[in-house]
Amino acid sequence: MALIRFVAVSTEEARAFQAGEPDAYGDPPERRISNGDGVPCRHCLRNVSAGKPYLVLAYRPFPRLQPYAETGPIFLCAEECLRAEEGDVMPEIFRASTEFLMRGYGKDDRIVYGTGGVVPTQHVCTRAHELLQWPDAAYLHLRSARYNCYQCRLERA
Which of 23, 41, 141, 153 is the most buried (most CB within 10 A)? Predict the structure, then answer.
């Protein structure tokens, strides 16, 4: 039985940015060409292929501004792509990393203290299962351990 699910950036958000809607700072997404290495789209959860256009933008994965609403850079395919399916299996794109920062958030979108930490990749699912059992943890963020970039959201299945 699946206890967690990996959740990519929504199609609605991706399409808005792909259409040129401003990012979290009010700027249009920057358009670049991928070299095929290290350009992970947060919607399809795949690397943007070499020679393909992608967007760089400031993303705030929270519904409103508040003290814990972090904003940071993400990449998206510049052209429409299919959203990664939600599931309990870690998407392939994350498996090459050695570790991630994982942190829990409450229904009020504030950090649940005690949930944050760097987690080795092979323990991400186990730790997510543990944290999502905390009564105050409504969801988790998976972030880059090196740069703190948003990767995806983890929720109860």
Answer: 41
CA-to-CA distance for 106 and 39, rounded, in angstroms? 30
Nearest to 127 by CA among 1, 3, 30: 3
Is the Cα dihedral 28, 52, 85, 75 positive or negative?
negative
Pairing of strands 99-105, 150-156: unpaired
The CA angle 92-93-96, to the nearest 5 degrees, is 90
pLDDT in tens, 15-39: 999 999 999 999 999 999 999 988 9
Q: Name the DSSP letter for residue 83.
A: P
Maximum pairwise Cα distance, the chain: 46
Q: What angle do CA 53, 58, 63 make, to 5 degrees?
A: 125
Residues facing residue 76 across a β-bridge: 55
